[in-house]
Write a structure and sequence with these properties.
Elements (H helix, E strand, L loop, with lengths): L1 H32 L10 E4 H6 L4 H12 L1 E5 L4 E5 L2 H10 L4 E2 L1 H12 L8 H16 L1 H28 L3 E2 H18 L11 H19 L6 H7 L2 H20 L11 H22 L1 H14 L9 H6 L3 H6 L1 H13 L6 E5 L3 E2 L5 E2 L4 E4 L1 H4 L3 H4 L39 H18 E5 L21 E6 L1
Helix pairs in contact: 5-9, 7-8, 7-19, 8-12, 9-11, 10-11, 12-13, 12-16, 12-19
InterPro entries: Cyt_P450, Cyt_P450_E_grp-I, Cyt_P450_sf
Pfam family, one: p450
Organism: Datura stramonium
Length: about 475
């Protein structure tokens, strides 16, 4: 009965939210049309109603709008929301006028229950202090060497599980395995804690992983649910679930790393591990869809790892993969880049405009507007990448002479750019290369069902909805 009553209250609140939004949006449009007559504003792509109705396919919806307008507005009850796929605008927001675009109170209020005062949710001195600390940690050679050893052990454990699956002809959810493996890795590297969730012996780590995924999704929902604060105050609907998920996260992390809680936000590490686990999952997906790419990478790995082909087993091979060998694998690097272009771990990144401004495209934005650049949409724009923008094509990352070519970071915004560029970028690439090298050296991956549509779950991160189920074969 309590569940039914809660559902009725939640549905009623949603209907009231829609009606209230309609009134406010109508008021905002009239207000905007009568204000600043000489200013030029980006074309209206829709309202937050459209985001609400298209939430299950949000990034498809916004990619369609980006293809039509490049930069557009969605009219909301309290502010305009500007979304851009224009590299010039992205550079202006992320670098040229960096100080005028930050998380602001609006983003912080939405994110703080999940991320606390972590580096991904704050501005100003709090951000600078954590940035300095994190920069030191990621640049330490000792950490890099130690993390490589840990990553090689974890991928060897994962390979053992995949080998058993191949022998028994069982399908596996490779996204779930990547998430567990990277969860194990990050806690071992950052906190010296062995979770052993790869073996399934730690039920607490499973609850933690599920809770943080659900909290991630509910936090994303807050961006389109204008009544979320009321729901939180009443502890009903999605906000009641979020509260329970955060409690699970807190209990798990505080139990394991009490001595570190002041140095690192609760699930902050999860966003770092998400980058690699999510990307590796989409990477396996595209390799299944493009088997010729999978074979080309496997051949490159075999050639680059010359001298290790006589390794006694997978564990031995993994332990002896060198930085030099990883550097030689330029096609692997390009294939990972291409995966990130089409399936960025963070599909949209939101900022707040702190004072009235004009973007490089000549259109105005007002103080308090939400201004976002869209890595997911940008990766699919023909005006940026050419007519084959939606095709998975690692070759696009090479110049005419066959040498790898980096792209403008404001065109390829997966890791942000400018002062807030992701500090874990190189760590993520190293982990993805180590995992890819070992797994593709010994296994072939195929989708368990080629006819099944693989899609994302709308969250802050770009998780594969329902996981990625694959068949694994010995190479």
């Amino acid at each position: 009965m309590d569940i039914l009553q809660s559902s009725i209250i939640s549905i009623t609140a949603t209907i009231l939210s829609l009606l209230f939004c309609g009134f406010i949006v109508h008021f905002q449009i009239r207000k905007l049309l009568s204000k600043h007559g000489k200013k030029r504003y980006h074309p209206i792509g829709g309202t937050i109603f459209n985001q609400l109705l298209n939430f299950h396919r949000l990034h498809h919806y916004m990619t369609d709008l980006a293809g039509k307008y490049r930069t557009y507005r969605l009219i909301g009850p309290f502010r305009n929301e500007i979304y851009t796929a224009d590299p010039a605008n992205a550079e202006y927001i992320l670098k040229t006028n960096f100080e005028n675009y930050g998380k602001g109170w609006y983003n912080y209020s939405i994110l703080k229950d999940l991320l606390g005062d972590g580096i991904f949710a704050v501005d100003g001195d709090k951000w600078r202090g954590q940035r300095k600390l994190s920069s030191h940690e990621f640049s330490t050679r000792v950490l890099r060497n130690f993390s490589s050893v840990i990553l090689k052990k974890k991928v060897a454990n994962l390979a053992h599980i995949l080998s058993e699956a191949a022998n028994s002809n069982k399908t596996v959810d490779i996204q779930d395995l990547f998430m567990k493996s990277t969860l194990d890795s990050i806690f071992r590297v950052a906190f010296g804690v062995e979770l052993d969730s790869m073996c399934g012996s730690n039920e607490e780590s499973k609850k933690f992983s599920d809770a943080i995924d659900n909290a991630n999704a509910i936090t994303a929902w807050r961006y389109v649910d204008i009544l979320w604060k009321i729901k939180r105050a009443l502890s009903i609907g999605s906000e009641a679930k979020l509260r329970d998920d955060i409690r699970t996260v807190d209990a798990f992390v505080y139990k394991l790393i009490q001595s570190k809680t002041e140095q690192m936000s609760r699930p902050e590490a999860d966003l770092y591990l998400d980058t690699t686990a999510i990307t590796l999952s989409w990477f396996i997906y595209v390799l299944c869809k493009y088997p010729h790419v999978q074979e080309k990478i496997a051949q490159e790995i075999k050639e680059a790892a010359t001298g290790k082909e006589n390794a006694t087993d997978i564990k031995d091979f993994a332990a002896n993969v060198s930085e030099e060998a990883l550097e030689k694998m330029q096609y692997l690097h390009a294939a990972l880049k291409e995966t990130l272009r089409l399936y960025p771990a963070v599909p949209v990144n939101c900022k707040i405009c702190f004072s009235d401004d004009t973007l490089p495209d000549g259109f105005s934005v007002n103080k308090g507007d939400l201004v976002s650049y869209q890595p997911y949409a940008m990766g699919r724009m023909k005006f940026i990448w050419g007519d084959d923008a939606e095709e998975y094509k690692p070759e696009r990352w090479f110049d005419g002479d066959g040498f790898f070519r980096e792209e403008n970071p404001f065109k390829f915004t997966t890791f942000q750019a400018g002062p807030r560029i992701c500090l874990g970028k190189e760590f993520a690439y190293r982990q993805m290369k180590i995992f890819s090298t070992v797994l593709l050296r010994y296994f072939v991956f195929k989708l368990s069902d080629d006819s099944k549509i693989v899609n994302y779950r709308t969250m802050i991160n770009l998780h594969i909805d329902g996981g990625l189920h694959v068949h694994v074969f010995h190479r």
